[in-house]
Amino acid sequence: MALKAVNVTDVPNLDQVPENNASLSLYSSRFNSEGLELNSEATFKVPKFLVIGHRGHGMNILQSSDSRMKAIKENTILSFNSAAKFPIDFIEFDVQVTKDDCPVIFHDDFIFSEENGTVFEKRVTELSLEEFLCFGPQREAGKQGKSLLRKTKDGKILNWNVETDDSFCTLAETFQKVDPSLGFNIELKFDDHIVYQQDHLIHVLQVILQVVSEYAKDRPIIFSSFHPDAAQLIRKLQNTYPVFFLTNGGTQVYYDVRRNSLEEAIKVCMEGGLQGIVSEVKGVFGNPGAVPRIKESKLSLLTYGKLNNVPEAVCMQHLMGIDGVIVDFVQEISHAVDDMIIKPLNEGLREGDEETGTKSKLQFSQQELSFLLKLIPELIQH
């Protein structure tokens, strides 16, 4: 599904990009754009704390002793619709474009497989769609797919075995087959070790935008990327959906300084007219003073990371003013947020007390909250 490439000079100037409006498309179709509508007679709308399923029902960590990390194949239709069974707002997934211009869902830069006892790797973007779909479980009855392995962060090659498997999918299929009430956080994936020319980035983003334009309908969408140029370009190429800049928040160091702190992330957003930041949660806990600066810049803030699978850490973020979390333990965290944040808001409003309706069960004085914020950076170092 190729799109005609445009010249760099044809990309709209950033000065023409409208001002940040982070709330426009942030909420799932279960809620209106201003927040959660608590009942049909409610006149007061409460901003929604977003819960987003990481790669659907949760990422796979094959070497983990926790069976939840190997329950369902990540980034598949099955994983997405399994996540939709719980009270979440969005799913997050990774999009790359094959060499024949088809956006597909896959996280890693390389696919690993084995033939005749030899392990080989193939870059996803150098495969055709047909080649990509040949790996793993096949949709056609009786058809055997190529073996699928995965390389762990410590360099081990493991069989990609999960309790419930599913076949690979395209972005178009995801729009067609996933519960329409679920919003999509589309992460635009690029290899950290490759320097991309702008015309290549533009072409890839246009191919993705063409599919989104054809299939999105009323589904809420957020674009995000660790690649600062790609994030700013997708904002230039469209103004329908909000764009967030992904960052490790200073927990890792990169050659591109724009990726090395929350302060740099703010600059990327302000320079490019982006609507928000998605940070590794440790980056936020290690630098809590950045949260008010992000808010003062009228940016939204979401987080990702293993600590988001801990209910107390998630509720702490709600108290800090963070707008939502990307989580692996979808069932546990969505229910915890519902019990500790959403239901207390509903109850307060039903009682006609707007002030009560802005609080959760976890209530702290400003002094206690300040103490916790100072304590968190110490805790995450251990």
Concise structural overview:
Helices cover 30% and strands 17% of the residues. It is of the alpha/beta class.
Task: Provide a descriptive summary of the structure in words.
The strands form 3 sheets. The chain has an 8-stranded parallel barrel, surrounded by 6 helices. It has a two-stranded antiparallel sheet with strand order 4-5. Helices cover 30% and strands 17% of the residues. The chain has one domain: TIM Barrel (Alpha-Beta Barrel). Residues 1-25, 27-46 and 355-360 have low confidence and may be disordered. The protein is α/β, with parallel strands linked by helices and 382 residues long.
SSE pattern, N- to C-terminal: EHEEEEHEEHEHEHEHEHHEHEHH
What number of structural domains do the residues give? 1
CATH superfamily: Phosphatidylinositol (PI) phosphodiesterase
Strand order of the largest sheet: 1-2-8-9-10-11-12-13
Low-confidence stretches: 1-25, 27-46, 355-360
* CATH-defined topology: TIM Barrel
The shape, in one word, is: globular
Instruction: Specify the CATH class.
Output: Alpha Beta
Number of helices: 11
Number of strands: 13
Mean pLDDT: 85
The share of residues in extended strands comes to 15-25%
Radius of gyration: 21 Å
